[in-house]
Design goal:
Chain A is an all-alpha fold. Helix content of chain A is 63%, strand content 2%. The relative contact order of chain B is 0.11. The chains are: A mainly alpha (556), B mainly alpha (195).
C-alpha cells in the first residue's frame, strides 16, 4: 500500500520538475530562441499578426473568451447533428437540447460532468471531434491563462498572446504527452478501433453487446488535461478504459502530472522559484493528507453488511478488483484534488466519511487543481494571506514587489465568494424543492450529499459525481451548465484583473521590513487561509451531508 | 498594442479564432487519432477489444469484460447492477451504509446456500463499479469450488488444480498480496477439460 502511495504521488512530483522546465520553454520561449522564432513564424502564417502580437491583459482575456465561444459553438453543432454525421457505427440517435447545452458547457469549461453515458448516447464522431477536441483546447486555455497571470506577476505590462499560448500548449505540450500516454495505454490493452460494438454469444448462450471505440486516444488526454470525461459511463472503472493494475497506476499519475508541473512553470515565468517551492509544498501536504484519509476511511467495511454472513474486508461496493484494495480511495482523493473528475470506483458507494474527502478536495479546489486554473485559485488565497499578514503587522501588504490595495482585495474576495455561493446556493435550491429532492438515488443525508456533490463538482469544474443522482433532467442540465460556466470564467477573469492591476503599479523596493512570501512561515499562512476560509464556508453542509450520513448509518 | 475595443476589433478576433479552430480540430481529433489507430494495428487483438473466440471462430466474449454465469457448473462473477450489459455499463450507486444495501445483499445470499457459520467473500455480494468486472478474488473462487466440482462430477482437487494452472485466468496484483481470477478464462478452462 505504501509503495502504491509512492508510485501515485511521488513519481509525478519528481516528473513534474523536468516537465515544468520543458513547459516553460515550450509555452513561454525566449523571443530570440530558435524554437521561439520558428513557432512564431508558423503562427504568423496561420493567423497573421493577431496571433503573435503582444496583448495587455484585457485584450488577452477578450481573445480567450472569443475563442471559447467559438469552441462552444463548434462542439454544440457537432453534438446536435450527430445522427446525420459519419463515424456512427452503432446508429446512435439525437441528443436532447438541454443535454447538449450541459455537455458542451461541461467540456468547454474543462469540467467533464457527464449527464449521459458515452457508449449509449454519443457517436464516435461526437466523442472524437466534439468532446475529445475540447479536452485538448479547454486544458490549453487553462494553462495559457496561467502563463499570462505569471507574466503579469513577473512585472510585464503585456502578458503574451492568447492564441500563441493556446497553440503552443496544445501542439507542443499536450499533443506529444497524450500521444505517448495513448500508446502506452494501447500496449496496456485499451481498445483503439473504429469498429462498432461486438456481438458475443456467451458460454451460457446469452447475447452480449460489447461497446468499444477509439478509447485509448480519449483516455490519454482525459487524464492528462484534468478533463475526466470518459468514453464509457463508468469512466476508468470500465475495463476497456482501465484494463489492469498498470494502466491504473499510469492513469493515476497522469491526473496530477501537469497540474504539478504548472507550479514550476509559474515559478520559472515569474522568476520566483522559491515561491513556487512554497506553493508546491502546501499543495503536496494537502494532497498527502487527503489521500491518506481517503485510503484509511475506505479500508473500513460497508456498514450495511455488519452481522451478515459476509467476510469482513474493505468496502467493495462500486469497486473493481484488478486495481487492488485502496486504489479506488486513492484515485478519489487525487481526482478531486486536481479538477480531473475521472473515477475508478463509484463515489456514491464510498463509505459516508470517505465521501467527504472528494468533497473537501472540490471545496478547496487548490490542491494542484485544474491545469492552470488550480494555481490561479491558489493565487487568490495567497493574496488574502498576504493581506492578513499585512494587517497583522500594520503595513501595506505587498506581493511580488507590488502593493496590494483595496481594488485588488475587492476582486480577490469577490472571486473567493463565487465558489461557495454557487455550491451552497445551488444545493439549497435543489435540496429544498422537488427539482433536486425528487431526483436523489439514496434517501436521507446521503441523498442530500448527492445534491451537494453535484453542485460542488460543477462549481469546482471537477466533473465527478455521486452517480446515483438522477441528474439527466432539464433543470439539472440547465442549472449545472450555468454553474460550470460561471465557475470557470469568473475565477479566470478576476484574478487576471488583479494581476494586471498589480503589474500597472510601481515596484516597491525590497527592504528588511518586506514580508517575504517564499518562506516556510508564509507556507503555513496560506495553508491556514485555505483551510480556515473553506472550513468556515463548508462545515455546516459537511455536517448535514456525509457526517450525518455516517452517524445515522444502519448498524445492527 | 491596443487597449481600446471596437466592434470591428471583435469581429477581427472572431475571424482569427475561426481560422485557428479548424486547425486544432484536424490535428487533435484527426491526425492524433489516426496515429494511435495505426499504432493499434500492431496489437490487433487488444486494440479491437480483446475478443475471445470459440474454436468455430464465434465471439464468446471479451477477456476484459465480465459476463453472466448462473449455472452451477460455472464459477459465478460478481453481481452486476446492469445485468452485464456491456452496451450500457454502470454501478448500483447505493450507499454502503444504507438499508437498501443490506436488503440487496440479503437477496443475493440464498443461491450460495451458506452453511451455518460460513461466510461468503465480500466481492461475491458487492456490485462492481462498471457492472462488468471480469474478476473475482481468489477466495471467491475457492469458495465456489465445492459447487462447481459437484455439478461437473469432478473432485475438489481437480477443480483446484484448474484454478491454479497457468492460463486459467489467475493473476496476482503487484505490490499487494492479492490475487484475482478472470471468470471467463477459468470457466473456459473447465469446459475444455471436460469436452
Amino acid at each position: 500500500m505504501l509503495l502504491l502511495f509512492v508510485l501515485v504521488l511521488i513519481v509525478p512530483a519528481l516528473l513534474s520538475w523536468p516537465l515544468g522546465f520543458a513547459m516553460t520553454r515550450l509555452i513561454d520561449p525566449a523571443k530570440e530562441s530558435g524554437y521561439g522564432r520558428w513557432t512564431a513564424g508558423i503562427l504568423r502564417k496561420t493567423g497573421g499578426e493577431a496571433v503573435v502580437e503582444e496583448q495587455e491583459w484585457k485584450r488577452y482575456l477578450i481573445s480567450m473568451m472569443i475563442f471559447n465561444v467559438a469552441m462552444f459553438a463548434f462542439a454544440a453543432i457537432v453534438l446536435a447533428l450527430q445522427q446525420w454525421l459519419p463515424l456512427n457505427p452503432d446508429k446512435t440517435g439525437p441528443l436532447e437540447t438541454s443535454l447538449i447545452f450541459n455537455t458542451v458547457a461541461s467540456f468547454v469549461t474543462n469540467t467533464n460532468l457527464q449527464h449521459y453515458s458515452g457508449e449509449a448516447a454519443m457517436s464516435y464522431f461526437s466523442q472524437v471531434f466534439g468532446l475529445m477536441w475540447l479536452q485538448f483546447v479547454s486544458a490549453a486555455t487553462g494553462i495559457a491563462v496561467l502563463a499570462a497571470l505569471a507574466r503579469a506577476l513577473g512585472g510585464k505590462k503585456t502578458v503574451g498572446n492568447f492564441y500563441s499560448d493556446l497553440l503552443r500548449t496544445t501542439f507542443f505540450v499536450l499533443l506529444p504527452l497524450a500521444l505517448f500516454v495513448a500508446l502506452l495505454l494501447v500496449a496496456g490493452g485499451v481498445p483503439m478501433t473504429m469498429e462498432g460494438a461486438a456481438i458475443a454469444h456467451t458460454l451460457e448462450h446469452a447475447t452480449q453487446t460489447i461497446a468499444r471505440g477509439p478509447v485509448a486516444a480519449m483516455e490519454a488526454i482525459k487524464q492528462l488535461g484534468t478533463n475526466g470525461g470518459g468514453w464509457f459511463g463508468p469512466n476508468s472503472a470500465h475495463p476497456f478504459e482501465n484494463p489492469s493494475f498498470f494502466t491504473n497506476i499510469l492513469e493515476c499519475i497522469c491526473i496530477v502530472l501537469i497540474p504539478m508541473a504548472t507550479v514550476w512553470m509559474f515559478g520559472r515565468i515569474t522568476g520566483r522559484m522559491r515561491d513556487a517551492v512554497v506553493i508546491f509544498s502546501v499543495m503536496m501536504a494537502l494532497l498527502v493528507l487527503k489521500a491518506g484519509a481517503a485510503v484509511w476511511l475506505e479500508s473500513a467495511p460497508a456498514a450495511a453488511l455488519s452481522s451478515l454472513p459476509v467476510e469482513v474486508v474493505s468496502n467493495l461496493e462500486g469497486k473493481e478488483l484488478r486495481f487492488g484494495s485502496g486504489a479506488g480511495a486513492l484515485w478519489a482523493a487525487v481526482t478531486t484534488a486536481t479538477s480531473n473528475g475521472s473515477v475508478n470506483c463509484m463515489h456514491d458507494s464510498l463509505n459516508p466519511l470517505t465521501g467527504l474527502v472528494p468533497l473537501v478536495g472540490m471545496w478547496l479546489n487548490v490542491v494542484f487543481g485544474g491545469v492552470g486554473v488550480g494555481l490561479i485559485n491558489m493565487f487568490v488565497f495567497i493574496i488574502v494571506g498576504v493581506f492578513i499578514c499585512g494587517m497583522m503587522v500594520g503595513r501595506t501588504p505587498e506581493y511580488f514587489g507590488r502593493k496590494v490595495e483595496t481594488p485588488e482585495m475587492t476582486l480577490a474576495l469577490l472571486t473567493l465568494l463565487v465558489h461557495p455561493a454557487l455550491i451552497l446556493g445551488g444545493t439549497a435550491l435543489f435540496a429544498a424543492t422537488p427539482l433536486g429532492a425528487a431526483t436523489v438515488g439514496n434517501p436521507g443525508a446521503h441523498g442530500f450529499t448527492e445534491i451537494l456533490y453535484e453542485f460542488s463538482s460543477s462549481a469546482a469544474n471537477n466533473g465527478s459525481g455521486f452517480a446515483g443522482l438522477g441528474n439527466s433532467s432539464i433543470p439539472w442540465n440547465i442549472a449545472t451548465g450555468i454553474v460550470m460556466l460561471l465557475a470557470r470564467y469568473i475565477p479566470i477573469i478576476l484574478p487576471l484583473a488583479i494581476a494586471g492591476s498589480l503589474a500597472a503599479k510601481k515596484p516597491v523596493p525590497v527592504t528588511a521590513g518586506t514580508f517575504r512570501t517564499d518562506t516556510l512561515l508564509f507556507g503555513i499562512i496560506i495553508l491556514g487561509s485555505v483551510v480556515f476560509i473553506s472550513a468556515l464556508l463548508f462545515l455546516p453542509v459537511a455536517v448535514l451531508g456525509p457526517v450525518a450520513d455516517h452517524l445515522t448509518a444502519i448498524i445492527h | 498594442m491596443k487597449t481600446t475595443l471596437s466592434f470591428g476589433d471583435i469581429t477581427r478576433q472572431l475571424a482569427v479564432s475561426l481560422r485557428l479552430l479548424p486547425i486544432t480540430v484536424v490535428i487533435c481529433s484527426g491526425l492524433y487519432t489516426v496515429i494511435i489507430l495505426l499504432a493499434g494495428q500492431v496489437v490487433p487483438y487488444s486494440s479491437s477489444g480483446s475478443l475471445i473466440r470459440s474454436e468455430k471462430g464465434e465471439v464468446v466474449g471479451s477477456d476484459l469484460i465480465g459476463q453472466q454465469f448462473k449455472q452451477p457448473k460455472y464459477f459465478w462473477p460478481r453481481p452486476s447492477a446492469v445485468s452485464w450489459n456491456a452496451a450500457s455499463a454502470g454501478a448500483s450507486n447505493i450507499s454502503p451504509a444504507s438499508l437498501a444495501m443490506r436488503q440487496k445483499t440479503e437477496k443475493l445470499l440464498p443461491p450460495f446456500a451458506l452453511k451455518k457459520g460460513e461466510k461468503i467473500p465480500a466481492d461475491l455480494v458487492t456490485a462492481s463499479g462498471s457492472g462488468l468486472d471480469p474478476h473475482i478474488s481468489f477466495a471467491a473462487a475457492r469458495f465456489q469450488v465445492p459447487r462447481v466440482a459437484q455439478a461437473r462430477g469432478l473432485s475438489i482437487d481437480q477443480v483446484m488444480a484448474v484454478i491454479n494452472s497457468p492460463g486459467s485466468g489467475k493473476s496476482s496484483i503487484p505490490l499487494l498480496n492479492e490475487s484475482v481470477i478472470n471468470v471467463l478464462q477459468l470457466n473456459r478452462s473447465l469446459d475444455r477439460l471436460q469436452k
